[in-house]
Write a structure and sequence with these properties.
The chain is α/β, with parallel strands linked by helices. It has twelve helices and twelve strands.
Length: 346
């Protein structure tokens, strides 16, 4: 690791839970990042659909969070009448942090933001699944051509380093299969059903606690997990899959009787994303599966995520951790920034 101090000026597109989580981390741990890693990370710009601010000297993260929450941020002296595209074209920053809402159909407008930043020579770190699930090969090529980092650890399992484990720490192994629980909402619902709730009651509880959206289709029908399966296939197994290539089945058909039958057989229902190679062809599927109680993934309850990576040299390696949350996903942004620092790029 290099210990030479480096300043990284961050321009954010989006300031939802992930952007706020990143700001919270920088508010609380800026000194630790500087003292331990010689990383001076400063937010210099933020652009949302409603407001944009830019201060090349840096924006205090604590003040930013408070102003965004109060609605006063649009009255700041550093407010700009910029769109996200205009901010990317104009801002003096080193890293675009792309944390806008996901569109799993086209990947836009986030993919356009990423292309524009790379073309300017900016590093890009994103939590947005759409661009990586749909356009990973192109974006990786563009980043390599410009000599910049494309960071995407946050797109699967939030801050739990599932992707980095596969493409970096297990480098030298052949990854033969990846399977796991990559959607916390459905895992919470299935865990609640195992405790005796029916599907409708478990979903209502997940919505009450904020784990499920008012329209839970993306989670319960497996669309979110399919997007993550495509990312796992493309990043870890060099495939060229889109979410539409992933065979998909959600959990809406799981009944209390099915849960009881699994329990009686010493098994549990889990929504599993599975990616594997067969005769050099990579396949991906998302569907509910019954796992034996002693399977490493069977004991993962609630909103926790887990991934088992099967390799030729180490056998199965399983990683378990949080798969959602603003601070957890914001940490993934920090982990990519630290990776950029270790590479010695500026």
């Amino acid at each position: 690791m290099t210990h030479e101090r480096s300043t990284y000026r961050l321009a954010l597109v989006g300031f939802g839970s992930v952007g706020r989580g990143l700001a919270e981390i920088l508010s609380l741990h800026h000194r630790r990042l500087l003292d331990r890693y010689s990383v001076d990370a400063r937010i210099v710009a933020v652009c949302t659909r409603h407001w944009c601010v830019y201060d090349p000297g840096g924006i205090d993260a604590t003040v930013l969070i408070q102003a965004a929450a109060s609605g006063a941020i649009g009255k700041w002296d550093c407010a700009r009448a910029w769109s996200a595209d205009e901010m990317i074209a104009s801002v003096d920053a080193d890293v675009l942090v792309e944390v806008s809402p996901t569109d799993m159909t086209t990947g836009e407008p986030a993919t356009g933001y990423i292309r524009a930043a790379i073309a300017r020579g900016m590093h890009v770190i994103t939590s947005n699944k759409g661009p990586i699930a749909l356009h990973f090969a192109e974006l990786r090529r563009l980043a390599q051509e410009r000599g910049v980092l494309l960071g995407f650890e946050a797109t699967v399992m939030a801050g739990t380093p599932a992707l980095r484990l596969g493409w970096s720490d297990l480098a030298g192994c052949e990854i033969q299969e990846v399977r796991g629980i990559v959607n916390g909402t459905t895992n919470f619902i299935l865990s609640a059903m195992e405790r005796g709730m029916d599907y409708a009651s478990a979903l209502a509880e997940a919505q009450r606690l904020g784990y499920a959206e008012a329209d839970p289709t993306g989670d319960v029908e497996g669309y979110d997990a399919a997007g993550k399966a495509a990312i796992l296939a493309n990043v870890l197994m060099d495939a060229h899959l889109t979410p539409m290539d992933v065979e998909r089945e959600g959990i809406t058909g799981i009944t209390p009787d099915m849960v009881a039958a699994a329990t009686a057989a010493g098994e549990r229902w889990k929504l599993i994303a599975r990616v594997w190679r067969d005769a050099q062809i990579v396949h991906a599927v998302v569907r509910p599966m019954r796992l034996r109680i002693d399977h490493p993934l069977a004991g993962v309850a609630g909103v926790t995520n887990a991934l088992t990576i099967s390799t030729d040299l180490l056998g199965d390696v399983t990683i378990i951790g949080p798969g959602a949350g603003g601070v957890a996903t914001g940490f993934a942004i920090i982990s990519d920034l630290l990776a950029l620092h270790r590479m010695g790029k500026k």
